[in-house]
């Protein structure tokens, strides 16, 4: 398969307009779209082809409410680390859409999956989490291409999420993903707009 300029342009647009979304409309997502997202996430690369990501779709309002309470506690605890103007700015940040997003996924990494037969990770076990991160980013882009937004939430006590979902002991919680139709689209991160952290260019050192 050879790609042309139209493909490159489309990819660039999806990347430019992908955002971490925290404001959602309640419109439900069609099951066939959710199935496409699931299948596209599986296109991600992974160490040894181990595919260590594990995903639980959480529809239960009771579980979502507990996760929101978990978030609020973790958010307040993290807020203790800021002082003065930064503490005021932190208090104003919206860092999740758990109360709004129609589709919510708990994502885990299997700590020692049989798949992949250990290839590529013996000296770098972190590659399992790296693989899950790649799957999340693949899902993030796939969602954007479906005109959906995804918000990644890590302001959580991971052990409490594992207990709540009663997951196997070899699953490690990685992130809570909120997915839905965004209330607005933007080509600039919310944290940049809010003045918390602007986009900084990265330079590539040459040796
Ligand atoms: C590993 C990881 C963990 C988190 C995030 C991202 C990643 C990669 N981000 C989203 C993050 O704030 C966002 O990606 C940056 O601000 C850049 O914005 P865009 O994603 O480009 O819109 C995020 N956002 C948020 O509101 N609450 C959160 O807990 C987290 N946690």
From TrEMBL:
It is an enzyme of class 1 (oxidoreductase). InterPro entries: BluB (IPR012825), Nitroreductase (IPR029479), Nitroreductase-like (IPR000415), Nitroreductase/BluB (IPR050627). Keywords: Cobalamin biosynthesis, Flavoprotein, FMN, NAD, NADP, Nucleotide-binding, Oxidoreductase. It catalyses: FMNH2 + O2 = dialurate + 5,6-dimethylbenzimidazole + D-erythrose 4-phosphate + H(+). GO terms for molecular function: 5,6-dimethylbenzimidazole synthase activity; nucleotide binding; oxidoreductase activity, acting on paired donors, with incorporation or reduction of molecular oxygen. One of its GO terms (biological process) is cobalamin biosynthetic process. Its EC number is 1.13.11.79. It comes from the Bacteria. The keyword Cytoplasm does not apply. Residues 15-180 form the Nitroreductase domain. CDD domains: BluB (cd02145). Homooctamer. Belongs to the BluB family. NCBIfam families: BluB. This is 5,6-dimethylbenzimidazole synthase. It comes from Rhodobacter viridis.
